């Protein structure tokens, strides 16, 4: 792991991304109930998603434990050490997934994972494509390792 900051000092992390099929916004405690409902309804599906097949998460958690997790992600965002976005349905604002952008543990790059609810599985590909383009266009990373996707170099 490097001592360099994850993003340059003057870089302002994007506050989100909007497409006709989904909206990304920073994950926060206000999403707790909808976030918890989204991932708890899709444990098997998430564990079959690239980046989560060997992960211990998701696992059973109470709403209070989930809120603490969301608070940690919010602190990471504010501290510029990692960026977690909730994936929302643009029509009703329901949580349909999540996107994580964190430093790669063994080198200077961004490690990216995402998941969608089982009942919104058709969004997995479009989400990954939109996020890959967004990371290339709006973020300062030289290299992005997006779990289960081709490595991006800018």
Secondary structure layout:
Blueprint: E1 17-18, E2 23-26, H1 32-40, H2 43-47, H3 63-79, E3 83-88, E4 95-103, E5 110-116, H4 124-138, E6 143-146, E7 152-153
Parallel strand pairs: 5-6
Antiparallel strand pairs: 1-2, 2-3, 3-4, 4-5, 6-7
Brief digest:
The chain is α+β, with helices and mostly antiparallel strands.
Could you explain how this protein is built, in words?
- The protein has helices at residues 32-40, 43-47, 63-79, 124-138; strands at 17-18, 23-26, 83-88, 95-103, 110-116, 143-146, 152-153.
- It is of the alpha+beta class.
- The chain has a single domain (21-153), classed as Gcn5-related N-acetyltransferase (GNAT) (Aminopeptidase), CATH 3.40.630.
- Strands 1-2-3-4-5-6-7 form a 7-stranded mixed sheet, sandwiched between helices.
- Helix 4 links the parallel strand 5 (110-116) and strand 6 (143-146).
- Helix 1 (32-40) packs across helix 3 (63-79).
- The longest helix is centred in the middle third of the chain and has 17 residues, at 63-79.
- The two termini are 20 Å apart.
Annotated CATH homologous superfamily: Gcn5-related N-acetyltransferase (GNAT)
Report the portion of residues in β strands.
15-25%
Quote the average pLDDT: 92
Give the number of DSSP strands. Answer: 7
CATH class: Alpha Beta
SS element count, helices: 4
The low-confidence runs, each spanning 5 or more residues with pLDDT under 50, are: none
Shape label: globular
Structural class: alpha+beta
Q: List the secondary-structure elements in sequence, H or E.
A: EEHHHEEEHEE
> Which fold does the CATH topology refer to?
Aminopeptidase
Helix content: 25-40%
Q: What's the arrangement of strands in the largest beta sheet?
A: 1-2-3-4-5-6-7
Q: Provide the domain count.
A: 1
Main sheet characteristics: 7 strands, mixed
User: Distance between the terminal alpha carbons, to the nearest Å?
Assistant: 20 Å
Secondary-structure arrangement, i.e. CATH architecture: 3-Layer(aba) Sandwich
C-alpha Rg (nearest Å)? 15 Å
């Amino acid at each position: 792991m490097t001592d360099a900051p994850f993003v340059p000092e003057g870089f302002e992390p994007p506050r989100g991304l909007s497409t006709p099929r989904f909206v990304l916004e920073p994950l926060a405690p206000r999403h707790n109930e909808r976030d918890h409902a989204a991932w708890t309804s899709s444990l098997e599906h998430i564990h079959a998603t690239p980046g989560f097949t060997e992960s211990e998460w998701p696992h059973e958690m109470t709403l209070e434990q989930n809120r603490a997790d969301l608070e940690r992600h919010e602190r990471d965002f504010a501290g510029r050490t990692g960026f977690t976005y909730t994936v929302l349905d643009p029509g009703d604002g329901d949580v349909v997934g999540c996107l994580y952008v964190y430093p790669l543990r063994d080198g200077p790059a961004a490690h990216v994972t995402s998941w969608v609810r089982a009942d919104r599985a058709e969004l997995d590909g479009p989400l990954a494509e939109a996020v890959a383009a967004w990371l290339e266009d709006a973020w300062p990373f030289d290299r992005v390792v997006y779990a289960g996707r081709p490595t991006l170099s800018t």
